[in-house]
Amino acid sequence: MVKPISLIVTLVLLVKNMNDITKPQGFSLNTIGIIESPYKEKFAIPRQANLVTAAKGRVLLTGQQNNLDIIRDIEQFSHLWLLFIFHGTQAQGWKPLVRPPRLGGNKKTGVLATRSPFRPNPVGMSVVKLDKVSTNKQQIILYISGLDLLDGTPIFDIKPYIPYSDAITTAQSGYAQKPMDTLSVTFSQKAKEALVIYERQYSELASFIEQVLAQDPRPAYKSHQCDNREYGMRLYDLNIRWQLISVTSVIVLSISAID
């Protein structure tokens, strides 16, 4: 039989442990890598990974993680999960309600029911294709494609993508259905001439530009609307100028190097 005094002590300890569990705790995370990406600014980054398969980048491992042991056997996996910090939006803070682009940018919904970068903790995750692994002057580099990350994004974890557990074919995605409507893209004669020059440095540049613009990178409220505005976006170190010529088509006006 438990003595009353022992029971009281047990309950006190239980309540104390429960309080310790629910008490907010701080954690420190180490950056293990940095992204080198063709996306030099937030505008034109696709809203999800693998919508632009021609987007190619690199993960450079940093510090103690720049060690071949840490990635042993990683090439057995075709795709990887990258966990990262939204460093481009972190300073703007967060709100409990946001306006997701998939709802036209007008309707508010809970931030945890979205993939908005404006989160209580600015943590993101993306699945990317692992193309190859190499070492250059003791720097370990993971070559990836299909990324949707801003240049300089800090990576704090990498995990293998496992199809049988990570791809749930019966899952429901609510309002975030896969986009079906894409824009057709053409190039002006001036842009075609520039492609001849710049594709020597950036392979598959034409496909990359086409895939980015097909997603209509304009603000969500402008979707399915045509305007006469000339837009610009920075991919690699290039300035791409483009314009809608109908609600379903875009023309690339020019491609030039950024000084």
Strand content: 25-35%
Distance between the termini: 82 Å
Number of helices: 4
If you compute it from the alpha carbons, what radius of gyration comes out, rounded to the nearest whole angstrom? 23 Å
Largest sheet: 6 strands, antiparallel, barrel
Give the integer mean of the pLDDT values.
87
Name the structural class. alpha+beta
Might you state the CATH topology name of the largest domain? Elongation Factor Tu (Ef-tu), domain 3
What is the CATH C level class of the largest domain, in words? Mainly Beta
Lateral strand order in the biggest sheet: 1-2-7-6-3-8
Q: Could you explain the architecture of this structure?
A:
The protein is built from 4 helices and 12 strands. It folds into 2 domains: 134 residues, Elongation Factor Tu (Ef-tu), domain 3 (Beta Barrel), CATH 2.40.30; 74 residues, YaeB-like fold. It has 259 residues and is an alpha+beta fold. β6 and β7 form a beta hairpin. It is globular and about 50 Å long. The N terminus is likely disordered. The N and C termini lie far apart (82 Å).
